[in-house]
Specification:
By secondary structure, the protein is of the alpha+beta class. It has two domains: 195 residues, Chloramphenicol acetyltransferase-like domain (Chloramphenicol Acetyltransferase), CATH 3.30.559; 213 residues, 2-Layer Sandwich (Chloramphenicol Acetyltransferase). Helix content is 24%, strand content 24%. It has nine helices and 15 strands. Helix 1 crosses helix 2.
Length: 439
């Protein structure tokens, strides 16, 4: 695999104009222990006739340099605060990294299906940052020219600096600057807003938080060597749900809901429940094993007052649905959909304040036992990011692992591609259950 991609050049890209030299504090939600990793996106663009590769590379490097002016913390370095809890960013225009590479074997159509192994596409982002708090650049961009003239752009962004919505806003800003075909007057660039003080942890008051209302931070008994069961010999899978299949799932959910025929569920609620149930049934957990479905809930508009447009920090909390493996299987997708829906409904201003206390004062962090994490990338607009090469042919992660991603489908705004790696022994049953919503 080491020869599948050859790096031509790696450059440090600094802001094109002077930027503030300062130390910026990150919020309580930014500083959570479980966010200290890199978000890794992979966008693949089809070949363009007559494409000038050197000019395109130069355009992207220039656009990155200009994007780092308003987003100057992405050119800084994240570190723990010298005193007290939390993280901060040292902003001194240290720079991001841009890599240009050439693939030896990959073509655009190779990305139509899931990778053969969880790390098959790792060379497309060859600088992998294992520890985001040890002076590493928070932003890495790799442009890889594929053998058919297509382009793969992989982006690694330190999750401590932004969430999915914030990273998508940055990428759209970068794309607008890189796309020479757009008229400047039509640029839709959103002004980035730092303002991390708006998510201050609660201070100076005694608060009694009911742990039962935050199952995302509680531990469940491990009755089956859970981590070994779900992390060994993983095989990537990819299944697409179009509008017809999503509507069918909604009908099945209504029929099996404890709320009866009056139940109304969103596409996310029914698909998340269906994936959770199919995954659990395929792996075969003991009936009394407690299982959780964990997913992010955007709180930008759930706070009073809401966060300003352009806020690109982490502005989500974790929703958590919980039940036993037996109940999840026997009560059907409607039961699971109801759990997901109620987990979303629990989140309000007070809930967010309690989460900030958990992660700031108590160092709360989700325990992985019993957990399936679902991350919804299908509503971030990543498929519309056009750096002058057209819309992305493929959008997905650099590496596929046991965390489930909902991905956008090219030219089908309603459809969702579900990508997750499951144990090889469970793949066939997982596909069977996923394709048979009535079972």
């Amino acid at each position: 695999m080491g020869t599948s991609v050859r790096v031509k050049e790696a450059s440090v890209i600094t802001p094109s104009e002077p930027t503030p030299r300062c130390v910026l504090a990150l919020s309580a939600l930014d500083s959570q222990l479980f966010l200290r990793f890199t978000i890794e996106y992979l966008l693949v663009y089809k070949p363009s006739p007559g494409l000038d590769q050197p000019n395109t590379t130069a355009r992207l490097k220039s656009a990155l340099s200009r994007a780092l002016v308003p987003y100057y913390p992405f050119a800084g370095r994240v570190r723990p605060k010298p005193e007290g809890p939390g993280l901060e960013v040292v902003c001194a225009a240290q720079g991001a990294v841009f890599i240009e590479a050439f693939a030896v074997r990959y073509k655009a159509n190779d990305f139509e299906k899931a990778p053969k192994t969880v790390t098959q596409w790792r060379p497309l982002l060859s600088l992998h940052v294992a520890d985001v708090l040890k002076g590493s650049p928070p932003l890495v961009v790799q442009l890889t020219w594929l053998v058919d003239g297509a382009a793969a752009i992989a982006i690694g962004i330190n999750h401590c600096l932004c969430d999915g919505i914030g990273s998508a806003e940055f990428l759209n800003h970068f794309a607008e600057l890189a796309n020479e075909r757009r008229e400047t007057s039509y640029m839709r660039i959103q002004k980035p807003v730092w303002e991390r003080h708006l998510l201050k942890p609660p201070r100076g008051e005694e608060r009694r938080v009911d742990s039962a209302s935050h199952p995302e931070f509680s531990r469940v008994p491990d009755l089956c060597s859970f981590m070994n069961k779900v992390s060994t010999g993983l095989k990537p899978t990819s299944i697409t749900f179009d509008k017809t299949r999503l509507n069918e799932l909604k009908r099945v959910a209504q029929c099996t809901s404890e709320d009866g025929e009056a139940a109304r569920y969103t596409s996310f609620e029914v698909l998340a429940a269906h994936v959770w149930r199919s995954w659990a049934r395929a792996i075969g957990f003991p009936g009394n094993q407690k299982l959780k479905l964990v997913f992010s809930i955007n709180v930008r508009n759930r706070l009073k007052p809401g966060l300003p447009e352009g806020y690109y920090g982490n502005a989500f909390v974790l929703g958590c649905a919980e039940t036993s493996a037996r109940e999840l299987e026997e009560k059907g997708v409607g039961f699971g959909s109801g759990l997901v829906k109620r987990a979303k409904e629990r989140v309000g201003k007070e809930h967010v304040r309690e989460v900030m206390e958990w992660v700031w004062e108590r160092k709360g962090c989700p325990d992985p036992v019993g957990v399936l994490i679902v991350s919804q990338w299908s509503r971030l607009g990543l498929e519309n990011i056009d750096v002058g090469l057209g819309k992305a042919w493929h959008v997905g992660p650099v590496c596929c692992d046991r965390y489930c991603l909902f991905l956008p489908v090219r030219d089908e705004c309603v459809s969702v591609k579900v990508m997750v790696a499951v144990p090889t022994s469970a793949v066939d049953n997982y596909h069977l259950f996923m394709r048979s919503s009535h079972l």
